[in-house]
Amino acid sequence: MISTKKLFILFFSSFLCATTSSWCKDGLQIKGKLRILKPTTLQVNDLNGTLILSCELQPNKEFATEQKLIQPDIYTLRIGKTEEKIYFENHEVNIIGYYDETNPEQSSLSFKGIDSFLTLQEYLPADKDPDTATVSLPANAQLSPNMVSALAYLANVNDYYSNKKLLDMISDDERNSLSARWLVERVKILSHQIIGAECPDFTFTNVNDQKVNLKDFRGKIVVLDFCASWCGPCRKEMRSMLKIYNELKADDLEFISVSLDDSQAKWKKMLDEEKLPWVMLWDKTGFPKSNEAPSAIQTAYGFYTIPFLVVIDKEGKLIARNVRGEQVREAILKARN
């Protein structure tokens, strides 16, 4: 099933209309006239969720929000139950067309006054996989610092070097927008996910309710496995890892499985069933219900699905990430050479 939010993105991008922006000296104002089936609302929120502008929409009647000076940045435009992230500046924005809240895919909207947002669309990566996509700007690209951080936010790729290059285009005193602050934190997090980077530390509970820290295993090669009892592929991968463990086990090697179960009882039941010989830990935070709100450990290691395995060298630095089966064996042997 396609979500209502996704449908809004589809029709929104299909009916954008680029025209010359009109400058509004008093800030951002959204106005227009929509053919709608029933009254609804229009809202603009910043990336923190703070309400910036709003107004009621009536069928076939003109509408206009107040005018408000804003920090040019990415904002969430909500019309009824649908939403879209848009780069807004202190311009007047006009929206016309037909909007069907019940069936957003039937809607047809045209926007005027969002030229900078349309420019950003040209630089978004064609690759939609955040783990493989990159962002690059041509030499003649002329983007303001706010547009650069907005581009990074819209692209939302996991490539450290793309994000770092964009951040380096923004001087320290120009990192005032919410997307710029997001980019600063994004680069910091991604810097721990590149090969050779020191892996983020953590402290979780073992089967005896003792706190165990990743740094406790310095001096050993660590295979770190994020899993859950309800995850069939996770348990299959554990059994695959057991063969590698038995073949390569030595004083310089440690396997650690971190369960993201929301129940300690379910986790311990899995331990009883699998009877694995290595360190078993539990992150009581559990596995989030939405990728939009990852847990702290997911954010630190950059994963949204499980099983997810990384291999760490004796100095606590990343050797390999998102590996399976024989890739784990190869990474261990490489670390021993």
From TrEMBL:
One MF term in the entry's GO annotations: oxidoreductase activity
Keywords from the UniProt entry: Cytochrome c-type biogenesis, Disulfide bond, Redox-active center, Signal
SUPFAM superfamilies according to UniProt: Thioredoxin-like (SSF52833)
Gene3D superfamilies: Glutaredoxin
A family per Pfam: AhpC-TSA
Domain called Thioredoxin: residue spans: 193-337
Compartments, as annotated in UniProt: Cell envelope
Statement: the UniProt record of this protein carries the keyword Signal: yes
Entry GO CC: cell envelope
A GO BP annotation: cytochrome complex assembly
Cleaved signal peptide residues: 1-18
Organism domain of life: Bacteria
Protein name (Swiss-Prot/TrEMBL): Thioredoxin domain-containing protein
